[in-house]
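Shapes recur. Our protein:

. . .
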Amino acid sequence: MYKIALIQNDSEMLRYSWADTRPFLNRFDYKTFLYTGENIRELFRNLQEFDALFVSTNACNDRKIYSELKDNKVKIEDFLSNGKGLLITQQMKLSEIDGLKIDFVPDSYTLSCINRVRQKGENVSDGDFVVRQDCKNHVLLRYPKKIIIEKTKNWCLRNDLVEGLYWLYMVPCKAESFLPVLVDPSYGDERYLMLVSRPEAGSRIVITSLALDWQMHYDLLENTLKFVVEGMPFIAVVSKKGETKFDFNYFISNMKLRKIAFANYELDKLDFNKIQPDLHSTIVLDPSWTKKEILGSNLGEMHQNLGSATNIIWFESGEFKDPMVISVGGLRDFDMILRNALSWLYFNYEKGSWGGSFWITMDVMDTLVFFDQPIEQYKREILSFINTKRNKNGSLDNVFGATCGLLRIYDLLLDRSNQSFQETLKWIRDKFESRELYERATGIDTLIQLKLDLSNEAKTTFISEVMQKLPSVQDELTLYRYAKTLVSCGAYDKCHQFIVKLKKLQDDEGKWRNIPTTANIVLMLLRLRNNLGGSTEIIDEMIYRGVVYLKESYSTENLWKNDLAATATALRALGAFERTISFPLHAVMSSVEGSKDTSEKFFALNLASTQNLRLQDEKQAMMKEMDSLKIQLQNEEKAHNRVGRLTVRIASLLLLLIESVVMYVGFLLSNMLPATFFGLLFGSLVSIPPLIIAEILRRHGLLARSKYLQEIINLLRRERPKQDKE
């Protein structure tokens, strides 16, 4: 079960019933833990146990809460870096006029708040808020409830509890870190009212200056909480109302336990228009849906509109014992690359350009248009950036190639009747005839690509001149330039000799010079191949090797070496290649790799089982051998004890013999020595030798296990004082 740490202002809760959000949160299958100024320190002892942190409206008016949040900024950063969520709603005291800001978040998300009443003298009912155009399809506005922004606005203005449109607006330190979902455009520059972290950030952060909880914007708050706590619902489950089977319910329960974010649609009739399929990368259909119901639905229309990005999975009972799993479409590895790279390109936009370069900006713009990405939001700033470089005569620094690029950007951003477009086009036409062949190739290619008038004579003259120049052309860029223009002119048969030369210049890695050059040549070759109406072996081989090089040059962390031009062109080349392939290679490859992993694990398990059985057999054999050894040792022990007893008897007889000899010698000496000296010497001779002999026998192990001989030794030691005395 998901767990939320809810931070609220205790004093606000005592004064206003709507300041306590717990009754609303209890609607969801979440466990909510309340933290106020009294127990806020306890939160940071176990912060990682939670899935999301919710700083409710005006919680930071309590300075103790704000202070603890700031002191634990590093822990909050770690929390978010682990893919957790954070929701911050309106915080009145964290405004510039009070000298405070929302700075307990990671540095890239730090922001200031402007109090429009105290700092601007405005009325809270004035202004407006709208959905930013490039965020109109954001999940916050669509799932699980569809948000109609006019209703939200009217609810603000007619709210019985807290009436007003908004009190604060936000100024982020790094605007590029956020997606501005809700803005107020009525004061010139946009005012940010709801900011969401970008998808590539990994964490889920929503900061809003709206009092979503206090004003009871329940639909928008529910959507926001779902996003912050669970994440994007990339998986959709479509259940059949009243007929879902036990095993499919287990599948749903399993996803909940694993905390896999998913949307659950329960329908009477299968209708993909009710599913919002563009939000989900995978849609799993309940086995209760029959094949007739699935194929009779609007599945085909939906899949045609979405393309292959969405994977549809359903189950079908056939002739086999087990049900079959049918899978249609699905994300390719390129889809992952595309999302990552596009997010990175958006992130690196800086007020009118990418990388401060006209050429890089043109490459990125071409890529965004190629993938049908919106560019309208950049129009004003990019035109302003370009116009600082544009001459009054319509050219870009009087450079022919650059001016052709300028015309392409004008075509993307302006109507062709616009004066700037017409002036630039006129300059190109006026200068065309006087240019060198290479520059004329650029001009011809540009005019043809934009479907602008160009005489057949100009094309014919160019083809003739370029074929004459071919023998002297040796470098990749010139060969590419001429071949690309020949393709634009439709002179496909003339391209062969250029292609042969380009093939010789492609190295073992599949590269021409660098990533942008390789990408551009691959794009040209794909155009040529499509226009030839089929494959040619030499072109296909060059394309395959070039694509492999581009894919191997990519990394999730650095994309294409963190190079804007390389990323834009490589992305476009790989995208064009993916559009050429109709066979679902990605699905087959995933299946093959999955089967390979499963087979390897199964083989390892079988091997381990076999080894386990062998070890069990070895264990049994060893146990039998140990039992045999135990019996052998017991027999040896008995024999050893018998030897010990015999040794004691022999030692006893030996001691008696020694005693007899000593006594005999002592008797002889007693007749030769004085009585006193004889008594002392005799006692020593009688007691010491037996002890020495016994000790020698013990050290050699003869008496080590004999308790009987030990008793004899002890007895002799006890008798020694008596003998000395006597």
